[in-house]
Design a protein that fits this description.
Blueprint (H helix, E strand, L loop, with lengths): L26 H30 L7 H4 L14 H25 L3 H31 L4 E4 L4 E6 L2 E2 L36 H10 L3 E8 L6 E3 L2 H7 L3 E5 L12 H33 L2 H5 L3 H26 L1
Antiparallel strand pairs: 1-2, 1-6, 2-3, 2-4, 4-5
Helix pairs in contact: 1-7, 1-9, 3-4, 3-9, 4-7, 7-9
């Protein structure tokens, strides 16, 4: 019976002397794959929870084309999903530049690796900045709405199109209401931001314009559009209004069901954190490339490993874009 031969722990074909490389991958690559698989399960759980919640509240779920309508520099222009599509394109392009960086690393072309890594970083920064801009618009809101006593959101329509509160309420608050902050608030607690208009102002302005109608958060199962009430039905809803809602946060959402905003902040924020982390890692790798660290090592495996992470982040966004924005 032959004795087992001990493997040299210095061999590049083994993991600390423990045997041959699984799937021919180095320890670093295998650990990156473990991380990617575990993180993929996390994102899958988030998207599954989003899908189940949306299905449960399908009759009051906001319509994405009516929520994400902004585009930088185009004020007042209805551009549904255009900027989100551009963000997606930018992130996909960053994956292309990362592939080119990895390929240049295989060829030991330091300058090309540096340039492609730099391009990837720039595209990543543009994407994260775009996400921040999108968050700002989502939080600030577009039209404003009102909330009833039973926590239903009502929006306003004129000539078949949604209209902003500022378009028919032409005066500022008259009730001298002051926001409570720590220095003057009850029990020294801060209060949420007070809306620009009071409930009474909205009610009076609505009554003064007979062309205005109220649109509910409920969807018509046939048209897949929000139900618009008649003038008489709209007037009957006015006494039920108890709050003006402007924008969206974790408690209220002018676009409809507040859970939509919760998922938006959580899923896109979690993904944005991953992209930001990838940018920071890419910057570190970029400087190592410029300093010639990997040239001296004789390989660019670190670029490959960060490339795996970056492609994963891009792929996750494709699923987020598909299920959150498009479907």
């Amino acid at each position: 019976m032959e004795a087992n031969n001990a493997l040299n722990s210095d061999s590049k074909e083994t993991w600390s002397g423990g045997g041959n490389k699984p799937f021919g991958a180095s320890y670093g690559k295998m650990m990156m794959w473990f991380f990617i698989v575990s993180d993929a399960l996390t994102f899958s759980g988030f998207l599954a929870a989003y899908g189940l919640t949306r299905f449960k509240f399908i009759d009051s779920w906001p319509i994405a084309d009516e929520v994400f309508t902004h585009f930088p520099g185009l004020h007042g222009v209805h551009a549904p999903m255009y900027y989100v599509a551009l963000m997606t394109f930018i992130l996909i392009i960053s994956s292309v530049t990362m592939v080119l960086a990895v390929d240049a690393g295989h060829q030991m072309k330091q300058k090309k690796v540096a340039w492609y890594m730099f391009a990837t970083i720039i595209f990543g920064i543009i994407f994260v900045g775009s996400q921040g801009w999108e968050w700002k618009n989502f939080i600030n809101g577009s039209y404003g709405a009102v909330k009833t006593e039973n926590n239903h959101i009502l929006q306003f329509v004129k000539d078949g199109h949604q209209i902003a509160l500022a378009d028919f309420v032409h005066t500022d608050r008259k009730d001298d209401r002051v926001q409570h902050i720590r220095k003057n608030g009850l029990w020294f607690e801060n209060e949420e931001t007070i809306s620009q208009y009071s409930v009474a102002q909205v009610q009076e302005a609505f009554k003064a314009d007979p062309s205005l109608l109220i649109r509910t958060e409920k969807l018509d199962p046939k048209t897949k559009q929000k139900i618009v009430l008649s003038r008489a039905e709209s007037l009957a809803k006015l006494p039920l209004i108890n709050k003006v809602v402007e924008g969206a946060n974790l408690k209220e959402n002018e676009y409809g069901n507040p859970i939509f905003a919760d998922f938006f902040f959580f899923i896109t924020g979690f993904h944005g954190f991953h992209v930001l982390s990838g940018i920071i890692i890419n910057i570190i790798i970029f400087f190592n490339v410029v300093l010639g660290t990997y040239e001296r090592r004789g390989h660019y495996e670190m670029v490959e490993k960060v490339g795996l992470y970056w492609h994963f982040v891009d792929l996750v966004w494709v699923f987020v874009f598909t299920f959150f924005y498009l479907v």
